[in-house]
Each structure stands twice: as structure tokens, then as C-alpha cells.
């Protein structure tokens, strides 16, 4: 399956097919030098499969996890790119989850004022959400994704076979983003999680999410309108993620709790809770409301005294609302 993404910055193809990693170089077909970026949480067999296709390419491997998503790691990648004499026509290839895509994409966006990069996601979260759309960023001063750039990939290769190596908790972490897209855009997608054995529909789930993301990004590349709907659950979710830090909850788990916190419709909230519990994902947690509120105030969606949040009153129809910060704070104390 091929999905064409057409943005003002770039037009590119997203390929979804099992076994793509084995033939990545023939699909990429790049001239010039290639530079590989990965992280040590990616199985060595995956890294070796890609490296063998580019025996002359350097590969920078950083420690896995959100703790590496910072300016220090970003600078180290850029320094290594310079040391390997990459030029403006050379290509960066990312192999890994969302952190890898962010780090490689942001490095490619900055290097020589922008060079091509290709994304090969290895996690459900990256396949479903972060591998397309051009958002690249690092965490800074305790605030998630606060420094970055919009830099579209040149090609995305999505190989669901790679998910076989993913721990179950990580798989579900990414699938929460698919639940979110079902709630905001696609009732049939949400129904898969609510009524079917969703693990038997992984390829369909990824395809639906990629098509939703494509349609949204084409309309709103830089998140000025409809693309904000993809942030359902992220206002509270990002704050919780920053609050708990490296040893707490995963991104998708925080988004799930964020959706539960923001949703007004009690019946939809009950149905969402049932889905999250079915996926063994948390629906609530204990936190310091004041500390989480301070993190909310630094949210990228905050505009001085209010934040644009996403609300869902009917499955498949997300909409935007402006909430004053005191309203967001009040809910923290009543959850």
C-alpha cells in the first residue's frame, strides 16, 4: 500500500507493507552518501539488516528513551554528521521509534539548513503517528517538544513485521494514539478497539491512521487549524508525561489519561475507559495538581491565559475549544 502525502514543503510517499526493511535500499534508491541514525532499543538484527544494505554508511546509535531527546544528543548527531563530511545532497535515514525520528529529522532540518531524511519507524507509536507530518523536536528545560522544526521526510517505510519485537506494553502505548484518531476522526477505527480483537487488525489500524494523518497534514501542515485535533488528550497528557519523567508512564498512556481528564461526555468517557482497560492502559493516576498545572502553562498550545483543547462529544467528530487556564487547573483538582 502506498499513500502519497502532498504538503507545501514537500511531496513524499508512505509505503506500508510487511518485509520492507529487507529491501529498504532498493526502495530508497538514493545517490550520494547515506547517514544512519538509530537507538540501542532497536533490535540489533534490524540495525544490521539496514547497515548491510549501506556498508559504507556511518550509523549513529544513541541510548534509547525520552532521556536522549535533548539538545545534547542532537548536537552529538550533528557533530558526527560533520565529521563524516555529509553534504547538502546526502540523506539521513532514521530507524527507530518516535524519539529516533525526532532526533534524526531535527538534525536533518538544521544541517546545512536542511538535507533529505527518510523515516523507517519500528514502533506502533511511530508508525501510527509520528513518522509522517514533519514534526521534529527535542525536550528542553523539562518541557516536552519545546524546540524543533517542521521538516517533512522524503520517504516513509512502514513495516508491520517490525512490531513482533515490540514488548506488549510498548505496542499498546502506540495503539492509544489510534484510539485517539478513532475518537476524533473515524468511528469505524474506534469500533475495532471497542468490539473486535484489535490485535488481529494491526495492518488495518496503521493504514487508517496513516490516511487520517495524511488528510489532516495536507490541509494544515503547520498546525494552525484542523491538525490541532490530533492533540486530543495531549494537553494534560504532555504535562503528566513531563511530571512523571523518565521512570513514569509512556507517552500513549499519558495521552489516554489526558483524554479521560478532558472529555465531558460521560457515556463516551465510560466507553473510552473500557477500551483503555481492555488494552491494560491506565485511566487515571495520582499527581500533584499544582505541579502539573505549572507544566500546562508551558504547553505549546497555550496562548498566555488560555489553551486550545480538543473535545469529543460524538465519536469521529472532534472539535476545538478555548479553555482559560483556571478551567484547566480546576479540572486537575476534581479528577
- Helix percent band: 40-55%
Q: Rg, please?
A: 19 Å
What fraction of the residues are assigned to beta strands by DSSP? 15-25%
Question: What form results from the Cα inertia axes?
Answer: globular
Q: How many strand segments? A: 12
Order of H and E elements: EEHEHEHEHEHEEEHHHHHHHEEEH
Query: Number of helical segments?
Result: 13
Q: What is the CA–CA distance across the termini?
A: 43 Å
Structural class comes to alpha/beta
Show unreliable segments.
Answer: none
Task: Describe the main β-sheet briefly.
Answer: 7 strands, mixed
Can you list the strand order of the major beta sheet?
1-2-9-6-5-3-4
Average pLDDT reading:
94
Task: Give a description of the structure.
The longest helix is centred in the middle third of the chain and has 18 residues, at 202-219. It is globular, with a radius of gyration of 19 Å. By secondary structure, it is an alpha/beta fold. It has helices spanning 24-28, 44-53, 71-83, 98-110, 124-130, 168-184, 187-195, 202-219, 234-244, 251-262, 266-278, 289-296, 325-334; strands at residues 2-6, 11-16, 34-39, 58-62, 91-96, 117-121, 135-140, 143-150, 155-158, 302-303, 306-314, 317-324. Helix 5 (124-130) packs parallel to helix 8, helix 6 runs parallel beside helix 10 (251-262) and helix 9 crosses helix 12. The chain has a 7-stranded mixed sheet, with helices on both faces. A 3-stranded antiparallel sheet has the order 10-11-12. The chain has a two-stranded antiparallel ribbon with strand order 7-8.
Amino acid at each position: 500500500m502506498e499513500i502519497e502525502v502532498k504538503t507545501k514543503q514537500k511531496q513524499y510517499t508512505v509505503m506500508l507493507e510487511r518485509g520492507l526493511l529487507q529491501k529498504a535500499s532498493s526502495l530508497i534508491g538514493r545517490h550520494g552518501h547515506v547517514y544512519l541514525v538509530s537507538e540501542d532499543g532497536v533490535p540489533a538484527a534490524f540495525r544490521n539488516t539496514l547497515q548491510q544494505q549501506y556498508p559504507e554508511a556511518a550509523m549513529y546509535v544513541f541510548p534509547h528513551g525520552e532521556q536522549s531527546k535533548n539538545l545534547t544528543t542532537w548536537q552529538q548527531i550533528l557533530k558526527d554528521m560533520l565529521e563524516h563530511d555529509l553534504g547538502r545532497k546526502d540523506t539521513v535515514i532514521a530507524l527507530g521509534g518516535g524519539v529516533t525520528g525526532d532526533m534524526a529529522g531535527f538534525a536533518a532540518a538544521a544541517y546545512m539548513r536542511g538535507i533529505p531524511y527518510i523515516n523507517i519507524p519500528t514502533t506502533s507509536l511511530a508508525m501510527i503517528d509520528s513518522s509522517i507530518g514533519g514534526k521534529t523536536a527535542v525536550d528542553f528545560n523539562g518541557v516536552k517538544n519545546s524546540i524543533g522544526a517542521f521538516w517533512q521526510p522524503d520517504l516513509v517505510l512502514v513495516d508491520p513485521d517490525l512490531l513482533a519485537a515490540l514488548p506488549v506494553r510498548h505496542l499498546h502505548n502506540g495503539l492509544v494514539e489510534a484510539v485517539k484518531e478513532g475518537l476524533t476522526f473515524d468511528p469505524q477505527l474506534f469500533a475495532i478497539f471497542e468490539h473486535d480483537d484489535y490485535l488481529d487488525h494491526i495492518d488495518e489500524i496503521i493504514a487508517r491512521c496513516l490516511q487520517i494523518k495524511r488528510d489532516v497534514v495536507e490541509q494544515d501542515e503547520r498546525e494552525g487549524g484542523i491538525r490541532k485535533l490530533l492533540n486530543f488528550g495531549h494537553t494534560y497528557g504532555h504535562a503528566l508525561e513531563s511530571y512523571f519523567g523518565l521512570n513514569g508512564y509512556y507517552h500513549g498512556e499519558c495521552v489516554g489519561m489526558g483524554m479521560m481528564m478532558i472529555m465531558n461526555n460521560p457515556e463516551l468517557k465510560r466507553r473510552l475507559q473500557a477500551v483503555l482497560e481492555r488494552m491494560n492502559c491506565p485511566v487515571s493516576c495520582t499527581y500533584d495538581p499544582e505541579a502539573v498545572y505549572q507544566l500546562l502553562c508551558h504547553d505549546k498550545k497555550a496562548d498566555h491565559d488560555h489553551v486550545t483543547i480538543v473535545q469529543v462529544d460524538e465519536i469521529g467528530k472532534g472539535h476545538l475549544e478555548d479553555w482559560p487556564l483556571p478551567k484547566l487547573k480546576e479540572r486537575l483538582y476534581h479528577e
